[in-house]
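Reviewer 2 asked us to include a model.

Predict the structure of this chain.
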Amino acid sequence: MKTKIHNLTKGCHRRLKRPLAFIMVLSLLASLLLLTALAAETGWVSASGNANNNSVSNPENAYSQNNLRATFNSSSDSVEYTFGSGLVPSNAEITGIAVRIDASKSSDSTRTFNLQLRSGQSNRGASKNSGTLPNSDTGSYIELGGAADKWGYEGWTASKINSGFRVRIQSTSGGSSA
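Predicted model (structure tokens):
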């Protein structure tokens, strides 16, 4: 980098060399900060499978937004949604995880969902509750977590994400189906 600065300032008047070098260094720092801010995200990744299904009807209907639903009928219903390997580059720093669900409930139900992130067979961090579900499909998502939310677990690594990342969804008490 010094060679480039030197070559660019070689023909400059002596009084202009320092300000020009300062501006170039400042530009470099701004570029590095911008690159950090624009770090790659996976974007939204849909589940590709499910495991440990406990009484959830049609869990595969939750893989995409297609107006088909997985059905949770009681507070003991739960399922783990799995994702393929290689979700993030091996050198990625995990700064946060967001999960979106498209869910609704019967009008007489107070049922909600608890979501828990897992890696392999271990829970990671704290679970999050979906809050009140709408009475019908609104076409919008409930988003939990975010770009700076690790769900209370600071040990996320690319390896833990790429080797068995799962989202466990547990129905809560509250009446009819969701």
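DSSP finds three helices and seven strands in the chain. The mean pLDDT is 78. We have added this to the supplementary material.
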